[in-house]
Amino acid sequence: MTKDRTVIRHTFSVLTDNEPGVAARIIGLFSGRGYNIDSMTVAEVDPEKNLSRFTIVTTGTEMVLEQIRHQLERLVSSRAVKDLTAEGPHLERELALIKVKGEGAKRIEALRLADVFRARVVDSTLESFVFEVTGSTEKVNAFISLMKDLGIVEVARTGVAAMSRGAKGM
Amino acid sequence: MSTETTMNGAQLLLRALGDQGVDTVFGYPGGAVLPIYDELFKQNSIRHILVRQEGGAVHAAEGYARSTGKVGCVLVTSGPGATNAVTGLTDALMDSIPIVCLTGQVPTHLIGNDAFQEADTTGITRPCTKHNYLVKSVADVSRIVHEAFYVAKSGRPGPVVIDLPKDVLFAQGPYTPPPPAGKEHKNYRPRLKGDLRAIEEAVALMAKAKKPLFYCGGGVINSGPRAVQLLTEFVKLTGFPITLTLMGLGAYPASDRQFLGMLGMHGLYEANWAMHDCDVMIAIGARFDDRVTGKLDAFSPGSKKIHVDIDPSSINKNVRVDLAIVGDCGHVLEDMIKVWKARQAQPDKKALAEWWRKIGEWRARDCLKYKSSKELIKPQYALERLYHHIKDKDFYITTEVGQHQMWAAQFLKFEKPNHWMTSGGLGTMGYGLPAAMGVQIAHPEALVIDVAGEASILMNIQEMSTIAQYRLPVKAFILNNEYMGMVRQWQELLHGGRYAESYMDSLPDFVKLAEAFGAVGLRAEKPGDVDGLIQEMIKVKRPVIADVRVDKAENCFPMIPSGKAHYEMILGDEAAKTGEQKVSEDGMVLV
Ligand SMILES: Cc1cc2nc3c(=O)[nH]c(=O)nc-3n(C[C@H](O)[C@H](O)[C@H](O)COP(=O)(O)OP(=O)(O)OC[C@H]3O[C@@H](n4cnc5c(N)ncnc54)[C@H](O)[C@@H]3O)c2cc1C
Ligand SMILES: Cc1ncc(C[n+]2csc(CCOP(=O)(O)OP(=O)(O)O)c2C)c(N)n1
Ligand SMILES: [Mg+2]
Of A24, B36, B257, B307, whose CA is between 20 and 30 Å from A33? Predict the structure, then answer.
């Protein structure tokens, strides 16, 4: 039996009925079976058909990732499950709000870096900014780590929203 | 909405149950479900069986469901009623038994207030049900009931909870009749037909096999009598050997020559060796449980594995297979037979003959052999005699959990499905007596026997009172070794004979206990008493507790200790020579 123990990171999209307890079912499934959740986002995406969409970033061996997909599919409330990472090119975006406090040169440097990362200033006072940055997780990480030295007060991140490239839907 | 079609929630519920074909509900009343009991009182089509503890209700419904192929139905009150049902629900989930459990709930406006007898039932039961519902509006009652029955019985069956707040039961609402076929659920539609190309590939693999083995399980029984019939036909057609899991017993006639017996931890020598040595494994409706596989990386190392299962999550969960076929085993078997016949597949006769010769050698090892005794009743002997006396009757067997359960699996023979009810996945002591009660309700004329251990049966002994009330002639056949024998066996073999807390002190006098419940008590103390006891037990048309005093030191073999491979199986005569078994640290942590 070949057992590949390499742990890899995959992103899943899950379309479910928007009903009470669905998020608890999914979180319970992950915690009960010992799977990781690196990030999970959810919102209603089709009010008419009453559908919610979860984006779940998780890590595991190939066998575990296959289990995760099947376990998600098996939920009675789930409509469609896609392993975006396995299925080809896809987009991942997250949004972060970053509050930075600083004066003088640091303040100017923060603004300059924000410009490089195409982060927007969404709030400012004489001693602080709130930046909004969107992009891949790596880009957001890079921006936050650069801001560390420039006086980060707090960070809020949405987690990943993702979909496949090209014309086809879920 | 015309007034004729509106009813209160409790009436809507009963009407929906009726339309789902429910004739029996196992339950226990309480404040939150009184409106339902009030409606039950006013009607005659649904029979309510009053258990003595809600845990008993769920096991009874499991016995009813497994022995009929129908959905079992349970009704309990809020709070403690619901929490008492949790073990049974988990049991049904693990063993894929279709159950609909109705739980009372505090009125909607009090939910979340720590109201009297409030429990977060949907929260508590989420991980131990296939699906659950909290009904927030009376308009949803009947629709949800129909959907719940559909979910419970389709695909991989399982338990479904419907939590019903009391105000919803009183409110007036319209009735929704059962939806037409194909419209039972907006999206839950498990795949039944297997992929034809995969089936063709499977047949090609099978036709080339030199050492093939069918490994089948509870899924075949879940699928129904047609699947069982097709399995038998296919096994005959191919001439291949077949082994069954604990949950699969009865899916293939036990007396047939091609049947190698149960495999796994306490499976037969020939079955485990065939599993280890086979070159093509055809797994159908079995889930590669750890009791079956033993040490994973030594499990059937040289075989190509074909796996048919309706639940994709059962595939590649523990063991990587070479060919997966997702679908209902009845449908898939039908196609497999068609393809096999169309190809006029001719297995390698010479290789097969050689394989059967090898199997014959393993069989000759006679792994269930035990040392008989003139003084002590050997539990194996008691079961051999039991089988002798019941084999020509319409019998149903349930069990508790422990050594007696494994001996029952080894020594009793099941020719047809749905006649063997045991707690496999969860291993719930206390399952057997209430399960037998449920079986007897469904089959009033049949001989229903709970093969029990003295420790297990005490876990739900209160159900003797239910058995008495409904005059159910259930027989509790206790192999009384005054020990939690299975625990004692592990302590003897793996923990240096330190029998911590496994001795059953202060046991009741089971004969008097039977009498106290209005049943018949019988006892056998010497091998010579056994036949008489069994004959008497069968003859009396009343409930019986039979206290069979068996050898306290007997161990159940063959045994593959946890974490060991099939080839490391211990046999009875060898164990007698070698004493304590060396189990690796990895193995010790396993259960
Ligand atoms: C003390 C003790 C000792 C035990 N020792 C052993 C032992 O030695 N040997 C042994 O075998 N077991 C043993 N067990 C039982 C074991 O724990 C498992 O319960 C059992 O092996 C599982 O049986 P199964 O694989 O047939 O699966 P089940 O639990 O019956 O599951 C059925 C499988 O079939 C699938 N299925 C359901 N419906 C369909 C359908 N319509 N079509 C296709 N597939 C379907 C399901 O998805 C699932 O994968 C023991 C239990 C106890 C308590
Ligand atoms: C509810 C529950 N608690 C504990 C166990 C662990 N356990 C498995 S077998 C067993 C002993 C059963 O003893 P008995 O019913 O006398 O059967 P025997 O093994 O002696 O035949 C125990 C305690 C269990 N399976 N279920
Ligand atoms: Mg015992």
Answer: B307
Question: What is the span of the domain harbouring residue A113?
Answer: 90-163
Active-site residue list of B: 54, 116-117, 166, 486
Query: What is the distance between the alpha carbons of residues B11 and B14, in angstroms, rounded to a whole number?
Result: 5
Nearest-atom number in ligand 2 for the CA of B402 is 19
Residue owning the nearest CA to atom 49 of ligand 1: B287
Gap from A91 CA to chain B (nearest CA, Å): 27
CA distance B92 to B160: 10
Structure tokens at B578: 């070698």
Any CB–CB contact under 8 A between B462 and chain A? no
Q: What ipTM was assigned to the predicted interfaces of this complex?
A: 0.92
Task: Indicate if B215 and B119 belong to the same structural domain.
Answer: no
pLDDT digits (tens, 9 = 90+) for B69-113: 999 999 999 999 999 999 999 999 999 999 999 999 999 999 999
* Buried/exposed code over B211-230 (b: 16+ C-beta within 10 A; e: otherwise): bbbbbbbbbbbbbeeebbeb
Domain tally for chain B? 3
Interface test with A, best of B125, B187, B293 (most A CBs within 10 A): B187
Model-wide pTM > 0.90: yes
Structural domain total, chain A: 2
Q: Is the CB of B292 under 6 A from ligand 1?
A: yes
Residue B589 maps to a domain: no
Task: Choose which residue among B156, B272, B399 to substitute to test ligand 1 binding: the one with the highest number of ligand atoms within 8 A of its C-beta.
Answer: B156
Partner residue facing B188 (CB), from A1, A32, A76: A76
Cβ–ligand 1 distance for B98 under 6 Å, the answer: no
Would you say residue B34 lies in a domain? Answer: yes
Specify if A170 maps to a domain.
Answer: no
Q: Which residue is it, tokens 């051999």?
A: B384
HEC-encoded secondary structure of B116-158: CCCCCHHHHHHHHCCEEEECCCHHHHHHHHHHHHHHHHCCCCC
Residue B168 sits in the same domain as residue B230: no
Q: Are residues B350 and B383 in the same domain?
A: no
Could you tell me the two tokens for B377?
């009743």
Write down the residue that tokens 């008989």 correspond to: B372
- Residue B486 in contact with residue B434, Cβ under 8 Å? no
Q: State pLDDT tens for residues B557-591.
A: 999 998 899 999 999 988 777 766 767 777 778 88
Cβ distance of B130 and A76 shorter than 8 Å: yes
Q: Is B299 part of the contact surface with chain A (CB cutoff 8 Å)? A: yes
What's the rounded mean pLDDT across residues B447-465? 98
Interface check for B412 against chain A (CB to CB < 8 A): the answer is: no
Dihedral angle at the C-alpha atoms of B400, B61, B168, B152, nearest 10 degrees? 100
